[in-house]
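Q: Here's a chain of 324 amino acids. Please give me its 3D structure as C-alpha coordinates.
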Amino acid sequence: MTFEELVILIATAVASATPLVFAVVGETITERAGVINLSADGTILLAGMAGFGAAKAMDSIWAGFAAAALVGAAIALIVAFGAITLKQSQVAIGFILALLCADLSSYLGRPLVLQPGPQVPSLPIQGLQDIPVLGRIFFSSDGLVYASYVLVILAAVYLYRTRGGLMLRAVGEQPAAAFARGVPVVRLRYLYTLVGGALIGLAGAAFTLDMKTGWTYRHTAGYGWIALAIVIFGGWNPVRGAIGAYFFGFLETLASFAQSRVENIPTQVFSVLPFVLMILVLALTSGEWLTRLLGRAPPWLRRALSANLNAPAPAALGRPFEQD
Protein backbone atom coordinates (compact mmCIF):
# COMPACT_ATOMS: atom_id res chain seq x y z
CA MET A 1 0.00 0.00 0.00
CA THR A 2 1.42 3.36 -1.03
CA PHE A 3 1.24 6.52 1.09
CA GLU A 4 -1.29 7.99 -1.36
CA GLU A 5 -3.52 4.94 -0.98
CA LEU A 6 -3.25 5.16 2.81
CA VAL A 7 -4.38 8.80 2.81
CA ILE A 8 -7.35 7.92 0.58
CA LEU A 9 -8.21 4.97 2.83
CA ILE A 10 -8.20 7.11 5.99
CA ALA A 11 -10.21 9.89 4.33
CA THR A 12 -12.79 7.34 3.19
CA ALA A 13 -12.91 5.84 6.68
CA VAL A 14 -13.59 9.22 8.29
CA ALA A 15 -16.41 9.96 5.85
CA SER A 16 -17.97 6.49 6.07
CA ALA A 17 -17.99 6.62 9.88
CA THR A 18 -20.10 9.79 9.95
CA PRO A 19 -23.50 8.06 10.34
CA LEU A 20 -22.12 5.99 13.21
CA VAL A 21 -20.85 9.16 14.88
CA PHE A 22 -24.38 10.61 14.88
CA ALA A 23 -25.81 7.35 16.26
CA VAL A 24 -23.12 6.97 18.93
CA VAL A 25 -23.48 10.54 20.18
CA GLY A 26 -27.26 10.20 20.21
CA GLU A 27 -27.17 6.96 22.20
CA THR A 28 -24.52 8.38 24.54
CA ILE A 29 -26.79 11.33 25.40
CA THR A 30 -29.74 9.00 25.98
CA GLU A 31 -27.84 6.60 28.19
CA ARG A 32 -26.19 9.42 30.11
CA ALA A 33 -29.74 10.39 31.11
CA GLY A 34 -30.32 6.86 32.42
CA VAL A 35 -32.38 5.43 29.55
CA ILE A 36 -31.30 2.53 27.33
CA ASN A 37 -32.57 2.79 23.75
CA LEU A 38 -31.93 -0.61 22.21
CA SER A 39 -34.08 0.24 19.19
CA ALA A 40 -31.09 1.92 17.50
CA ASP A 41 -30.66 -0.68 14.75
CA GLY A 42 -34.33 -0.61 13.73
CA THR A 43 -34.47 3.17 14.13
CA ILE A 44 -31.58 3.65 11.72
CA LEU A 45 -33.26 1.41 9.16
CA LEU A 46 -36.72 2.99 9.41
CA ALA A 47 -35.42 6.56 9.61
CA GLY A 48 -33.04 5.94 6.71
CA MET A 49 -35.89 4.63 4.58
CA ALA A 50 -38.19 7.51 5.59
CA GLY A 51 -35.46 10.07 5.01
CA PHE A 52 -34.67 8.79 1.55
CA GLY A 53 -38.37 8.59 0.67
CA ALA A 54 -39.05 12.14 1.87
CA ALA A 55 -35.97 13.52 0.09
CA LYS A 56 -36.98 11.78 -3.14
CA ALA A 57 -40.63 12.87 -2.93
CA MET A 58 -39.80 16.52 -2.18
CA ASP A 59 -36.46 16.63 -4.03
CA SER A 60 -34.81 18.05 -0.93
CA ILE A 61 -32.17 16.50 1.29
CA TRP A 62 -33.29 18.87 4.07
CA ALA A 63 -36.74 17.30 3.98
CA GLY A 64 -35.11 13.89 4.14
CA PHE A 65 -33.06 14.72 7.23
CA ALA A 66 -36.06 16.36 8.91
CA ALA A 67 -38.21 13.29 8.27
CA ALA A 68 -35.50 10.96 9.58
CA ALA A 69 -35.05 13.02 12.75
CA LEU A 70 -38.82 13.00 13.37
CA VAL A 71 -38.98 9.22 12.90
CA GLY A 72 -36.08 8.75 15.29
CA ALA A 73 -37.67 11.04 17.89
CA ALA A 74 -41.05 9.29 17.53
CA ILE A 75 -39.51 5.87 18.17
CA ALA A 76 -37.57 7.29 21.12
CA LEU A 77 -40.83 8.70 22.49
CA ILE A 78 -42.26 5.18 22.58
CA VAL A 79 -39.15 4.01 24.42
CA ALA A 80 -39.40 6.91 26.86
CA PHE A 81 -43.11 6.41 27.55
CA GLY A 82 -42.70 2.70 28.15
CA ALA A 83 -39.55 3.04 30.23
CA ILE A 84 -40.12 6.29 32.15
CA THR A 85 -43.89 6.56 32.52
CA LEU A 86 -44.94 2.89 32.47
CA LYS A 87 -41.66 1.77 34.10
CA GLN A 88 -41.42 -1.34 31.92
CA SER A 89 -38.21 -3.10 30.92
CA GLN A 90 -36.15 -0.76 28.75
CA VAL A 91 -34.26 -3.68 27.25
CA ALA A 92 -37.44 -5.49 26.20
CA ILE A 93 -39.07 -2.35 24.76
CA GLY A 94 -35.99 -1.40 22.76
CA PHE A 95 -35.36 -4.91 21.46
CA ILE A 96 -38.95 -5.34 20.27
CA LEU A 97 -38.90 -1.93 18.59
CA ALA A 98 -35.62 -2.78 16.87
CA LEU A 99 -37.20 -5.86 15.28
CA LEU A 100 -40.48 -4.09 14.48
CA CYS A 101 -38.85 -1.06 12.86
CA ALA A 102 -36.51 -3.25 10.80
CA ASP A 103 -39.46 -5.18 9.36
CA LEU A 104 -41.45 -1.99 8.81
CA SER A 105 -38.57 -0.45 6.89
CA SER A 106 -38.47 -3.46 4.56
CA TYR A 107 -42.24 -3.49 4.04
CA LEU A 108 -42.77 0.25 3.62
CA GLY A 109 -39.58 0.74 1.64
CA ARG A 110 -40.36 -1.72 -1.17
CA PRO A 111 -41.30 1.02 -3.68
CA LEU A 112 -37.95 2.74 -2.98
CA VAL A 113 -35.64 -0.22 -3.56
CA LEU A 114 -32.79 0.68 -5.96
CA GLN A 115 -34.51 3.94 -6.92
CA PRO A 116 -32.39 7.03 -7.68
CA GLY A 117 -32.72 10.01 -5.39
CA PRO A 118 -30.99 13.14 -4.11
CA GLN A 119 -27.77 12.94 -2.15
CA VAL A 120 -25.61 15.25 -0.06
CA PRO A 121 -23.31 17.22 -2.39
CA SER A 122 -19.56 17.35 -1.97
CA LEU A 123 -18.36 20.49 -0.22
CA PRO A 124 -14.56 20.81 0.11
CA ILE A 125 -13.52 23.68 2.39
CA GLN A 126 -11.43 26.11 0.41
CA GLY A 127 -8.06 26.73 2.02
CA LEU A 128 -8.34 23.97 4.61
CA GLN A 129 -8.46 21.24 1.98
CA ASP A 130 -5.02 22.35 0.79
CA ILE A 131 -3.37 21.50 4.12
CA PRO A 132 -0.98 18.60 3.45
CA VAL A 133 -2.51 15.21 4.35
CA LEU A 134 -4.90 16.54 7.03
CA GLY A 135 -6.75 18.71 4.56
CA ARG A 136 -7.45 15.76 2.28
CA ILE A 137 -8.54 13.58 5.20
CA PHE A 138 -10.79 15.97 7.13
CA PHE A 139 -11.77 18.89 4.90
CA SER A 140 -12.38 17.46 1.42
CA SER A 141 -15.74 15.82 2.05
CA ASP A 142 -19.25 17.27 2.53
CA GLY A 143 -21.28 19.29 5.01
CA LEU A 144 -22.60 16.24 6.86
CA VAL A 145 -19.09 15.08 7.72
CA TYR A 146 -18.19 18.55 9.01
CA ALA A 147 -21.42 18.64 11.02
CA SER A 148 -20.35 15.42 12.75
CA TYR A 149 -17.13 17.11 13.92
CA VAL A 150 -19.16 19.97 15.38
CA LEU A 151 -21.64 17.57 16.99
CA VAL A 152 -18.91 15.69 18.87
CA ILE A 153 -17.34 18.92 20.14
CA LEU A 154 -20.67 20.42 21.20
CA ALA A 155 -21.75 17.21 22.94
CA ALA A 156 -18.47 16.99 24.89
CA VAL A 157 -18.55 20.66 25.89
CA TYR A 158 -22.21 20.45 26.89
CA LEU A 159 -21.74 17.28 28.95
CA TYR A 160 -18.64 18.34 30.84
CA ARG A 161 -18.55 22.15 30.78
CA THR A 162 -22.13 23.36 31.27
CA ARG A 163 -24.75 23.32 34.02
CA GLY A 164 -27.19 21.59 31.65
CA GLY A 165 -24.66 18.82 31.09
CA LEU A 166 -24.16 18.47 34.83
CA MET A 167 -27.92 17.99 35.30
CA LEU A 168 -27.97 15.50 32.41
CA ARG A 169 -25.30 13.40 34.06
CA ALA A 170 -27.00 13.77 37.44
CA VAL A 171 -30.30 12.28 36.26
CA GLY A 172 -28.38 9.29 34.93
CA GLU A 173 -26.20 8.83 37.99
CA GLN A 174 -28.21 9.89 41.05
CA PRO A 175 -31.76 10.82 39.98
CA ALA A 176 -33.13 10.84 43.53
CA ALA A 177 -30.46 13.29 44.69
CA ALA A 178 -30.97 15.43 41.58
CA PHE A 179 -34.74 15.50 42.18
CA ALA A 180 -34.20 16.53 45.80
CA ARG A 181 -32.26 19.54 44.49
CA GLY A 182 -35.11 20.56 42.20
CA VAL A 183 -33.98 18.92 38.95
CA PRO A 184 -36.97 17.76 36.83
CA VAL A 185 -35.71 14.21 36.36
CA VAL A 186 -38.63 12.80 34.36
CA ARG A 187 -38.83 15.79 32.04
CA LEU A 188 -35.09 15.74 31.36
CA ARG A 189 -35.08 12.00 30.71
CA TYR A 190 -37.86 12.48 28.18
CA LEU A 191 -36.01 15.40 26.57
CA TYR A 192 -32.66 13.67 26.19
CA THR A 193 -34.22 10.42 25.03
CA LEU A 194 -35.96 12.36 22.25
CA VAL A 195 -32.77 14.27 21.37
CA GLY A 196 -30.79 11.04 21.25
CA GLY A 197 -33.48 9.37 19.14
CA ALA A 198 -33.49 12.27 16.68
CA LEU A 199 -29.71 11.96 16.27
CA ILE A 200 -30.02 8.22 15.68
CA GLY A 201 -32.67 9.03 13.06
CA LEU A 202 -30.25 11.46 11.40
CA ALA A 203 -27.73 8.61 11.28
CA GLY A 204 -30.20 6.65 9.16
CA ALA A 205 -30.60 9.53 6.71
CA ALA A 206 -26.82 9.96 6.67
CA PHE A 207 -26.55 6.42 5.31
CA THR A 208 -29.24 6.63 2.64
CA LEU A 209 -28.56 10.21 1.51
CA ASP A 210 -24.79 10.27 1.73
CA MET A 211 -22.72 7.21 2.61
CA LYS A 212 -24.78 4.39 1.06
CA THR A 213 -27.04 6.44 -1.15
CA GLY A 214 -30.36 4.88 -2.03
CA TRP A 215 -32.44 2.22 -0.32
CA THR A 216 -32.31 -1.57 -0.37
CA TYR A 217 -33.57 -4.37 1.85
CA ARG A 218 -31.87 -4.28 5.28
CA HIS A 219 -29.80 -1.39 4.02
CA THR A 220 -27.89 -0.74 7.25
CA ALA A 221 -28.62 -3.88 9.26
CA GLY A 222 -26.18 -4.33 12.13
CA TYR A 223 -24.90 -0.76 12.42
CA GLY A 224 -27.24 0.09 15.28
CA TRP A 225 -25.87 -2.77 17.36
CA ILE A 226 -22.33 -1.65 16.56
CA ALA A 227 -23.26 1.88 17.70
CA LEU A 228 -24.54 0.48 21.01
CA ALA A 229 -21.30 -1.45 21.48
CA ILE A 230 -19.20 1.62 20.66
CA VAL A 231 -21.04 3.63 23.33
CA ILE A 232 -19.83 1.11 25.91
CA PHE A 233 -16.36 1.02 24.33
CA GLY A 234 -16.29 4.82 24.54
CA GLY A 235 -17.12 4.86 28.24
CA TRP A 236 -20.26 6.94 27.61
CA ASN A 237 -17.99 9.76 26.44
CA PRO A 238 -18.88 11.36 23.05
CA VAL A 239 -15.25 11.96 22.07
CA ARG A 240 -14.12 8.42 22.79
CA GLY A 241 -17.30 7.14 21.16
CA ALA A 242 -16.50 9.09 18.01
CA ILE A 243 -13.00 7.62 18.00
CA GLY A 244 -14.55 4.15 18.20
CA ALA A 245 -16.84 5.00 15.27
CA TYR A 246 -13.88 6.18 13.19
CA PHE A 247 -12.00 3.02 14.08
CA PHE A 248 -14.89 0.88 12.85
CA GLY A 249 -15.04 3.01 9.70
CA PHE A 250 -11.35 2.32 9.18
CA LEU A 251 -11.88 -1.43 9.60
CA GLU A 252 -14.77 -1.39 7.13
CA THR A 253 -12.82 0.62 4.57
CA LEU A 254 -9.77 -1.59 5.03
CA ALA A 255 -11.90 -4.68 4.39
CA SER A 256 -13.23 -3.14 1.16
CA PHE A 257 -9.68 -2.26 0.14
CA ALA A 258 -8.48 -5.81 0.81
CA GLN A 259 -11.42 -7.34 -1.04
CA SER A 260 -10.31 -5.77 -4.31
CA ARG A 261 -6.76 -7.05 -3.88
CA VAL A 262 -7.08 -10.50 -2.33
CA GLU A 263 -8.32 -13.30 -4.53
CA ASN A 264 -9.92 -16.68 -3.78
CA ILE A 265 -11.62 -15.49 -0.56
CA PRO A 266 -15.44 -15.25 -0.47
CA THR A 267 -16.74 -11.69 -0.40
CA GLN A 268 -18.86 -12.52 2.68
CA VAL A 269 -15.65 -12.80 4.70
CA PHE A 270 -14.82 -9.17 4.02
CA SER A 271 -18.39 -8.10 4.79
CA VAL A 272 -18.34 -9.53 8.31
CA LEU A 273 -14.65 -8.91 9.05
CA PRO A 274 -15.10 -5.35 10.46
CA PHE A 275 -17.79 -6.58 12.88
CA VAL A 276 -15.61 -9.47 14.07
CA LEU A 277 -12.56 -7.26 14.53
CA MET A 278 -14.62 -4.65 16.39
CA ILE A 279 -15.92 -7.28 18.80
CA LEU A 280 -12.36 -8.51 19.31
CA VAL A 281 -11.16 -4.99 20.09
CA LEU A 282 -14.04 -4.49 22.55
CA ALA A 283 -13.11 -7.72 24.31
CA LEU A 284 -9.42 -6.85 24.48
CA THR A 285 -9.94 -3.30 25.76
CA SER A 286 -12.26 -4.57 28.51
CA GLY A 287 -9.93 -7.18 29.95
CA GLU A 288 -7.94 -7.05 33.17
CA TRP A 289 -4.79 -7.83 31.22
CA LEU A 290 -4.94 -4.34 29.71
CA THR A 291 -4.92 -2.78 33.17
CA ARG A 292 -1.87 -4.86 34.09
CA LEU A 293 -0.18 -3.85 30.83
CA LEU A 294 -0.78 -0.19 31.58
CA GLY A 295 0.95 -0.70 34.92
CA ARG A 296 4.18 -1.14 32.98
CA ALA A 297 3.63 1.95 30.84
CA PRO A 298 5.25 5.34 31.48
CA PRO A 299 3.47 7.41 34.16
CA TRP A 300 2.19 10.03 31.68
CA LEU A 301 0.59 7.31 29.54
CA ARG A 302 -1.03 5.65 32.58
CA ARG A 303 -2.52 8.97 33.69
CA ALA A 304 -3.84 9.67 30.19
CA LEU A 305 -5.49 6.29 29.70
CA SER A 306 -6.32 4.75 33.06
CA ALA A 307 -9.08 7.25 33.83
CA ASN A 308 -10.84 6.45 30.57
CA LEU A 309 -10.52 2.67 30.36
CA ASN A 310 -13.26 0.47 31.77
CA ALA A 311 -15.39 3.52 32.57
CA PRO A 312 -18.47 2.48 34.56
CA ALA A 313 -21.93 2.89 33.12
CA PRO A 314 -24.16 5.64 34.55
CA ALA A 315 -25.24 4.34 37.95
CA ALA A 316 -28.99 4.63 37.26
CA LEU A 317 -28.85 3.38 33.68
CA GLY A 318 -31.93 1.28 32.91
CA ARG A 319 -33.50 1.83 36.33
CA PRO A 320 -36.96 3.38 36.63
CA PHE A 321 -37.25 6.49 38.79
CA GLU A 322 -40.04 6.85 41.31
CA GLN A 323 -40.86 10.55 41.59
CA ASP A 324 -42.26 10.84 45.15
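Q: Can you summarize the key feature?
A: The domain at 3-306 is CATH 1.10.3470 (ABC transporter involved in vitamin B12 uptake, BtuC).
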